[in-house]
Amino acid sequence: MRKKKIIVAITGASGSIYAKLLLDSLLKLSDQIEKVGVVMSDNAKEVWRFELQNQDYDNYPFTFYPKMDFNAPFASGSAKFDTMIIIPCSMGTLGRIAHGISNDLISRAADVVLKERRKLIAVVRDTPFSLIHINNMKTVTEAGGIICPASPSFYSLPKTIEEVAQTVVSRVIDLAGLEQDSYRWNES
What is the rounded CA–CA span in Å between residue 97 and residue 63? Predict the structure, then answer.
């Protein structure tokens, strides 16, 4: 299996635990990954510090890019990143992507991934959805993106908040085409 090049975008929507667990999981799956590029919005850093009470995003060995760095490799399709995961994905970010507004590295990278017909996974984390949100999700889906709401499952009988959040992250990892050990419905 060819190793994957993955973009992780973290926006300021609530749900920093999802981003943290994804980064932790990608570390464990490093044998399947060639490169991980990460971009965080300013709000994402603020929400991470508030929700997780730390700045552990500074401790990951991945390459982090400033939100306005249009020289990042994945700002161009020629870099051939396979997958972009936006986790959590704010509705503002989704709206900009849906309407082709590439005003920062997150929206530019998403635009590139969609135009190159690669995999875009948007882990939306908002509720309830307005009609504008639903229409933006429809537009991104029609353009080839995958909308994966941060809706945990409970059939694995999770015991901690991390285990609950991991049910979403495990689904995202499956969607990204990475092999992992995780709970599978009705399998022993």
Answer: 23
